């Protein structure tokens, strides 16, 4: 019996070694707009085959973030030139202050089932 995986299932099963942690602080009164921006970001990364994990996060009333992961550094670098990165640049000073973007090496993971 041959098991066929969808493109998404295959990407989820791929081990990751590289990540990014982005921290975003909403400007006063723009919290809902930042949340909407992040929710919309999911659709943008769907077209990035090497962005195999992507999470939009809320840490508190005005603090948000993104964690994304890639099979390797080339996937991370491609993502840094993608549409979400463009959106971060375009909305800095309008929706949020300058984001901090921290590269991370993934040491261990529990892959999705």
Q: Can you offer a commentary on this structure?
A:
- It contains four helices and four strands, in the order αβαββααβ.
- A four-stranded antiparallel β-sheet has the order 2-3-1-4.
- The chain starts with 6 loop residues before the first helix and ends in an 8-residue tail after the last strand.
- It is of the alpha+beta class and 113 residues long.
Main β-sheet, spatial strand arrangement: 2-3-1-4
Put simply, the count of helices is 4
Number of strands: 4
List low-confidence stretches.
Answer: none
Assembly type = single chain
- Report the mean per-residue pLDDT as an integer: 90
The span between the termini is 20 Å
User: What is the strand content?
Assistant: 15-25%
Main β sheet profile: 4 strands, antiparallel
**What is the helix fraction of residues, given as a range?**
25-40%
Structural class by secondary-structure content: alpha+beta
- How big is the Rg? 15 Å
The H-and-E topology, N to C, reads as HEHEEHHE
Descriptive keywords:
25% strand, 113 residues, four-stranded antiparallel β-sheet, globular
Provide a concise account of the structure shown.
The chain is an alpha+beta fold and 113 residues long.
SSE blueprint:
Elements: H1 7-13, E1 18-25, H2 31-45, E2 53-58, E3 63-70, H3 73-79, H4 83-91, E4 100-105
Antiparallel strand pairs: 1-3, 1-4, 2-3
